[in-house]
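Late entry, evening session. Most of the bench is empty. Finally got around to the prediction I had been postponing all week. Sequence below, unchanged from the version circulated by S.P.
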Amino acid sequence: MKNSVFIATSLDGLIAGKNDNLDWLSTFPEIDQVDTGYHEFTAKIDALLMGRNTFETVCAFDGDWPYQKPVFVLSNSLIEIPEKYQGKAFFVKGTLTEILSQIHEQGFTNLYIDGGKTIQSFLKEDLIDEMIITIIPVLLGEGIPLFANLHEQLVFKCVKTTLFFDKVVQNHFVRVR
C-alpha cells in the first residue's frame, strides 16, 4: 500500500495563487510539451483521493473528466456527486485511517493523494510515502501552501531530480521510515 503525491508548486511553495488562481502553472508553456512523468505515475496508482476544493476545481475545468481511475472525494459538506461524474467519483468520510481502510477494502492500494488540505492532513498523520514535486520558478507571494505545520519532523530522501528547459525542477522524494 502506498500513498503518493504528484503536484506542482511555485518557488515559494504554493499550489495555488491568490483566489485559487492557477494561471501561474502556464508560466513556461513549453513544459506541457514534454513528458514530466505524470502518465507513468498515474499508471502505477489504483485510485485518487482528493479534497472537496480540488474536486470542485477539477469539475470546473473545460473538457472531459481528466482521470481514468476512480476518484474518492473527502467532503463533509457536499451532498452528492454531480450527475456527469457519478460512477467516476465517490464521497468518503471518517478519519484518514478509516477512509484508507474503506478504499483498501475495495482493492485500491496505491493512491494518488491530491489537494492542499488533504496532502497536509496526510502528512500530519505520516501517511505519505512519496512526493513528486515540480517547482515552477515563480514567486506568487500569497495563496495556498503545499505544506503546513507538522506535529513531528518527517524525513524524506530525494531519489531523483529532473531539470526541464533549464527552468523547471522536479524532485522525487521517498519517505524514510
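Two things to note before I forget:
Helices lie at 38-43, 52-60, 96-105, 116-124.
The domain at 2-175 is CATH 3.40.430.10 (Dihydrofolate Reductase, subunit A).
Will write this up properly tomorrow.
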